[in-house]
């Protein structure tokens, strides 16, 4: 058995293994997760800019960014070259929909363009996760 190779050739070979029917869902899921992760990092970093002092509102704002980042990372960790069959996949799918619901509530409370983009990324991530994160059968 050979060791995994981190070279570009190895990654190219892995890309060739992706089922053509799965590839668009994988790309969509990963893109939504990367967008969500970038927005989450921006959200967390902006805490120090938007709040003068460490307050409950600052903690809430930072925590929201960190929660979104955790969800994005969990999704990225589960999306592989084929449908994820890990037993944790259904929990990630469920968390995606819970975040969509909370995101819609946040959008109703804070109707700003960046909130709409976050909810859109959450929704795309949740929908695509039904094709990429199958879980155990």
Give a description of the structure.
Helix 4 (56-78) packs antiparallel against helix 5 and helix 5 (89-109) packs antiparallel against helix 6 (113-132). With 137 residues, the protein is mainly alpha-helical. Helices cover 73% and strands 0% of the residues. The longest helix has 23 residues, at 23-45. The protein contains six helices and no strands.
Secondary structure layout:
Blueprint: H1 8-16, H2 23-45, H3 47-50, H4 56-78, H5 89-109, H6 113-132
- What is the structural class? mainly alpha
Low-confidence segments, ≥5 residues, pLDDT <50?
A: 1-11
Give me the Rg, rounded. Answer: 17 Å
Major β-sheet profile: none
Percent strand equals under 5%
Number of helices: 6
Terminus-to-terminus distance:
28 Å
Q: What would you call the shape?
A: elongated
The count of DSSP E runs of length 2 or more, i.e. the number of strands, is 0
* SSE succession: HHHHHH
Give the integer mean of the pLDDT values.
87
Which bin fits the share of residues in helices?
Answer: over 70%
């Amino acid at each position: 058995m050979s060791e995994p190779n981190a070279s570009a050739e190895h990654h190219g070979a892995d890309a060739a293994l992706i089922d053509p029917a799965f590839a668009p869902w994988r790309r969509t899921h990963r893109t939504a997760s990367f967008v969500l992760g970038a927005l989450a990092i921006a959200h967390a970093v902006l805490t120090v800019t938007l709040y003068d002092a460490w307050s409950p509102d600052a903690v809430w704002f930072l925590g929201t960014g960190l929660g979104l980042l955790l969800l994005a990372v969990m999704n990225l960790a589960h999306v592989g070259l084929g449908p994820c069959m890990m037993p944790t996949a259904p929990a990630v799918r469920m968390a995606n929909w819970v975040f969509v619901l909370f995101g819609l509530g946040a959008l109703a409370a804070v109707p700003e363009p960046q909130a709409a983009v976050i909810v859109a990324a959450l929704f795309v991530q949740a929908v695509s996760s039904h094709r990429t994160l199958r879980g155990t059968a």
